Amino acid sequence: MTVEEILAQSRTKTWKIQQLILLGKTRNEIAALQVLGAYGAIQNVYAAMQRNGQLPSRTTPQASPRQTSSQIISRNVQRISRDASAPATPTTTPTVAIPPPQTATNQPQRENAGNLISVIGNRQLKPVTEKFGIEIEAFNVTRPTLRDALVNMGIACEVEDYNHRTRPQWKLVTDGSLQGTNPFELVSPILVGQDGLFQLKKVCTVLQMQNARVNNSCGLHVHFDASQITFPILQNILINYMNFEEEIDSFLPHSRRNNSYTQSIKNHRTAVENARTMQGLISAFDGRYYKVNLQSYSRHNTIEFRQHSGTVEYEKIENWVIFLHNLIEYSKNYKFPRSEANFEGLKKLNQKVVYDFLITRINQIAA
Known about the structure:
Elements: H1 3-8, H2 13-22, H3 27-32, H4 39-51, H5 69-72, H6 75-80, H7 113-122, E1 131-138, H8 143-152, E2 157-159, E3 170-173, E4 184-187, E5 191-192, H9 193-209, E6 220-225, H10 231-243, H11 245-250, H12 269-274, H13 278-283, E7 292-293, H14 295-300, E8 302-305, H15 314-331, H16 343-349, H17 352-366
GO molecular function, one term: ligase activity
Protein name: Putative amidoligase enzyme
Organism: Arcicella aurantiaca
């Protein structure tokens, strides 16, 4: 059986791991699929097979990869955050409920740093529950081949010409801005909460198995449902993103910091702060090619975040989605003080696992 056929079987994870090992896949390769558990779980199955004499003769033990703290946290980041000196440890994102939000109003909000940080420090972070959508730009796989692989994994998908219509299934379309052999844009249907993230994880597994690749022409776009987003909340989202824009830039590649498709929104601060209506916010920007795109509000009733670089790695996409979700949830009640919008501020807005991941990305990009 192929990898796809093994994963599609209605069998236990242990059985699937055993079959992949017998197929000749290494433990690191199986862990990279991100659907059968972490490396430790796969190692346990491997060890049991080794004790029972079930391993192929060519299979040899592998050393578990190790990283030092100096590889994970850069010296510059250590100066910013005393708590970021240890390697990121994968954990489950907290799923505790946030207290009912206060009602946002059109009145100017006081930026009392002391009170605000106290509130942030005591608040509990809400899990992703809202509707969202993903657009993954990549290349190196023909669209029919990728469609068939997704369908074989139980994910409905169709090949279409370029369009902006929302479908009930995933769709593969063309995009003239993409470079590379067999470029494509994979657009999700409306995804919801944790179930949506789980489906996204399966899609990323298929993309990696099909050897989909990305380059500097590729991006990752995330849409969030804006049907319940009022004018003051949207204004807060834009201002908070502006305030943290330099920090966000630092954990994304240089190619995504201010190119023609992901322009900075900081230069529009005055227009955003002076706006008094939803249309005033939308009119503050002259198109959709900004890090935060409000044209999608008029067309799809969503807010589109365009800044992230192209990727087919679920861990990167998941952390970016949760980061944006946290920013939106916070913006429903508050504007973060501009003077406090630094890495310490990001720590207060995000779960530790997300913050640690961002620090790791900064170190990787700076290397």
